[in-house]
Q: What sequence folds into this?
C-alpha cells in the first residue's frame, strides 16, 4: 500500500481536507497532489535521516511515516508549532529508527569454501614454528640461557 493510501486510511478525511487545502477553506475533497508531495518528502527524509528506504511492509516505518506526512502538511500550511514537531519527528528518524533498521552495516558476503590444511604430512604433525620445542626458547625465562642482563633481557 503506498504511503498516501496509508495516510488516507488512518487520518480522518476532514483533517486531510483541511491540511491539503490550506488556501481553499471551502474545499470538499482532499488535494491528492499535495498529499503525494508530502508523502514523497517523507520518503526522502527516511533516506536522509534514517539512512534506510521507506518500506510500507514494515509497521515501524508506516507508523512514523504517517506522522511525518501529517507534520509535513502542517509545515506546508504554516501551522503554529509545526516546525518543532518536525524537528522532534526527524530526531525519531535519526535516533531509534536508524539504530534499529538502517542497512549501513558490514554484512559477511563470501562464496568461498573453507578448505582446511592437512595437519599431517606422512606421519609427522605439522605445527607452526612458535609451537615447536625451541620456538619460544629465546624469550622464555626458564629456557636455560645464561647470557641475560639484569631484568631478564638478553645481551
A:
Amino acid at each position: 500500500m503506498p504511503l498516501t493510501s496509508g495516510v488516507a486510511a488512518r487520518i480522518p478525511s476532514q483533517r486531510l481536507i483541511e491540511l491539503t487545502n490550506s488556501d481553499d477553506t471551502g474545499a470538499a475533497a482532499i488535494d491528492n497532489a499535495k498529499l503525494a508531495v508530502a508523502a514523497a518528502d517523507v520518503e526522502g527524509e527516511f533516506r536522509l535521516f534514517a539512512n534506510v528506504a521507506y518500506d510500507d511492509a514494515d509497521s515501524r516505518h508506516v507508523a512514523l511515516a504517517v506522522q511525518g506526512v501529517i507534520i509535513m502538511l502542517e509545515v506546508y500550511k504554516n501551522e503554529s508549532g509545526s516546525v518543532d514537531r518536525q524537528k522532534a519527528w526527524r530526531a525519531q528518524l535519526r535516533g531509534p529508527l536508524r539504530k534499529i533498521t538502517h542497512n549501513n552495516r558490514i554484512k559477511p558476503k563470501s562464496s568461498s569454501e573453507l578448505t582446511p590444511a592437512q595437519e599431517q604430512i606422512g606421519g609427522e604433525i605439522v605445527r607452526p614454528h612458535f609451537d615447536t620445542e625451541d620456538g619460544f626458547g629465546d624469550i622464555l625465562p626458564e629456557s636455560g640461557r645464561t647470557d641475560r642482563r639484569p631484568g631478564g633481557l638478553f645481551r
Summary: The chain has a mean pLDDT of 78. The longest helix spans residues 82-101. Residues 16 and 30 are 6 Å apart (CA to CA).
